[in-house]
Design brief:
Blueprint (H helix, E strand, L loop, with lengths): L6 E5 L9 H5 L1 E11 L2 E9 L2 E10 L23 H4 L2 H9 L6 H10 L8 E6 L2 E6 L7 E3 L2
């Protein structure tokens, strides 16, 4: 509800593929945004209308996708050839959905194994300068993926 802004908290209860940039403009500096993204809960700290950053909480989260414009839909990927143990691992499936369209499933598997099967809270998201990207460990690389 833009006319009631600015907010100090926004909490979404439907899954999204990316953070709506309009939300940042409706938040006061220091606000928190909690939103389901991929199969995790993302907690962003808003610096200003053009920048927010944060990490995923440790716990998994499964929410119904946002309806209407397909914003919550995860692109389907061909995962043939991936080991069953990986496909059965909830944290690997989190990485697959977070990087859908940016990383090939085989590349995602190689990254997941190389980085020691990272927990969800090692991942984060930055929204800045009209761009939005997910990252592992550090928002400035080497592992970053565009979300928009």
């Amino acid at each position: 509800c833009p006319e009631r802004a600015p907010y100090d908290r926004i909490m979404a209860t439907c899954a999204l593929r990316s953070v709506p940039k309009e939300w940042l403009g409706q938040c006061r500096p220091g606000a928190r945004v909690l939103t389901p993204l991929s199969t995790g809960l993302l907690m962003l700290a808003v610096r200003d209308a053009g920048h927010a950053e944060g990490r995923f909480l440790h716990t998994p989260a499964y929410f119904v996708a946002l309806r209407g414009d397909g914003a919550g839909a995860v692109p389907r990927q061909h995962v043939g050839g991936l080991p069953r143990r990986a496909l059965g691992d909830e944290l690997f499936r989190f990485l697959l959905t977070l990087t859908a369209g940016a990383l090939d499933p085989q590349e995602a598997l190689a990254l997941w194994e190389r980085e020691g099967r990272p927990e969800r809270d090692r991942f984060g998201v930055t929204v800045s300068g009209g761009r939005e990207w997910a990252w592992l460990d550090d928002p400035e690389g080497p592992y970053v993926w565009a979300l928009d």
